[in-house]
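Batch 3, record 17
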Amino acid sequence: KAGVTQTPRYLIKTRGQQVTLSCSPISGHRSVSWYQQTPGQGLQFLFEYFSETQRNKGNFPGRFSGRQFSNSRSEMNVSTLELGDSALYLCASSLEIGLGAGELFFGEGSRLTVL
Amino acid sequence: AQSVTQPDIHITVSEGASLELRCNYSYGATPYLFWYVQSPGQGLQLLLKYFSGDTLVQGIKGFEAEFKRSQSSFNLRKPSVHWSDAAEYFCAVGLTVGKLIFGQGTELSVKP
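Prediction for the assembled complex:
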């Protein structure tokens, strides 16, 4: 069974640009979450999608957005990039059958560097 | 507010020695607790989880953790550390499906 796949794995952008990251969840998983990981702030929750609907959102500015498609694949977008957006962006998928069984399976992440 | 604290940023142990990584949480209700491990350049892998029942939970790779409600703790233990256990370890509390609050992580180094 294939794991969570994130693309691209590495990318470099300049300030002011925008970026789109992609995540393919494990087959059958309908919940997809995104996290930002930085040395200073650690792992922070961005948002969670289920059935193409955003159900939860973390404390990030509106420049951070996402969406989920009917096949459960998800994308996140960051517009007007800032230096502080440099981070590892992790996607995780889970079965939507309640938190008690909601083990998150993480991808290897997309490492974004903003110059 | 919900939070997770891992007091130790970096721990070094000798191979074969025992290990305990500390985790304290702040959460109003019965918590769902997790320990994840992250190797360099990798995503996170679940080691174990606690939802209810037996307060001592067993995980993969020989890890175990004990939930102590009175101390708001969920410490991770391993009786004998292997060099391959060197990684960063994260404790987390689950709020809802897909949403976890993570501690800052503890980096484990293993001396030969």
